[in-house]
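User: I'll paste a sequence; please echo it back and then give the predicted structure.

Assistant: Echoing your sequence first, then the prediction.
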Amino acid sequence: TRYAVPDALRCARRATLCPTRYAVPDALRCARRATLCLTRYAVCPAMDDGDPRAAPDDDAPPSSGENQGANPSPGEVPEAPRPPSLRQRTLGRSGGLVSEFTLGTWGLSGEASGPVYRLEVDRIISRAMEAGITLYDTADFYDGGDLQEKLGHRLDAEHRICTRIGTFPRDRPPRKHFAPRRLAEALDVCHERQNRSCLDVVLLHNPSVTALEGDAPDFMRERVDAGEVGVWGVSCGDADVAEKAIEVGASVVMLAFNVLHQSDFRRVAEAVEATETGVMARSVLAHGLLTGHWSRNKIFFDYDHRQQRWTRETLKYRLGQLDACRHLVDDTATTLRAVALRFVLHHHLVSTAVLGPRSLTQLNQLLLEAGHGPPYLNGEGLEALPARLAAVGAMSTAS
C-alpha cells in the first residue's frame, strides 16, 4: 500500500504498450501485474517504457513491506535489508577463495526465459557486488557477448569471471568446437571483451567424453601455464563427462545438483574429494521448480526454455515430488526455496552454488534465505530425506 499506486500505473501503462511491442500474451501479463500491484505486491520494479528490453517477470517472488526501505520515491528501487555476510569457500585445488554463491547470467541474457530490462541487469550486478558475491558465471555467446563485456567493464580484480567457451552459435549450423584452434579464437575474443590479460576461470561448455579425450585438456593446461587463464575446468552435462573431466585434470567441474537431482554429484563425490576438484553447483532451484511457488497448471511461454523442458504431465509429477522436502521447512529455513539453497550449501564438497535471479527482488530473497551458516538444515530432517525422496521416485530424476 505504501508504494503500490505509482507502480500499478506504470504496469497499466505498460500493458497498453505491450500489444505492439511484445504481443498479446505479455500485454495480459502486464495487465495482471498492474492489478496485483494494488493488492499483493508492495513494489513492482520500475520500468522505462522507452526501453524495448523491458519486460515484467512473472516468476519473481512477491515482496513484503517489511523487506523494503523507508519511503522511496516513485520509480526508485527500495533498499532491501542487508543479508548475512557471504561465506567463502575454496574453488578446488588451485582456484583460491570464492563466495559460496555465484551470480549466473544465463537468465539475465534474455535467452532462457525472455528479455530482462537492461537497467535491472545492472542493478542485479551492483547488488551482487555489494552483497559480497565474488564469482560471476557467463558464456561467451550470452546476449551476443554483451554480458561478458558488461561484466568485464563492471567488475574489478576482486571479482572474478567464470567464462564458458566452446559453443559457436554463429556457425551454420550452430555447433560446439573443442579443437585448440577454435578454443584459441574464443579465448582471444574473451580477453578483448573482459579487458583482462588473464581470464579468471574458463570452463569448456558441455563437451562430450570424446571431446575430452582429444587435445582440449592439453590446450587448456598450456594456456594456464602461459598465464592467459587462471583456472580451467569443464561445465558437465552428466556424470560421465564429469568423471572424464576429473580424470584429465580439470581443476573445476560444474554440474547440476539440487535436492531432487543428486545422482551425478554423488557419483563423482569420491573423485572430487580425492583430487580436490572444485564443484560449481548449477540448477540449484531446478529452474524455479524448487521455489514451491508454481501451481500444477503452470504454463510457460514459447520463448521460455522450460516450455520445452517439461510436458504438462511431467511438470505435475515433478511438483508432486516437492512434498518429500517440505518437512525440512522450519523456523530457520522458512520456505521451500530456502531449503533448496541450504541443501546444496550443506555439502562441503560444493565450492559455490550458481544462482540465476532475473530480478533484484529475487536476488535479495535468495541472499536472505541463505542463512547464517552451518548447520544449514535440521539434522533429523536430512536423515529422513533419502527415504522420502525414494518414495516419490526423486533420487535419480533428471534436473
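The first helix runs from residue 4 to 21. The longest strand covers residues 199-205.
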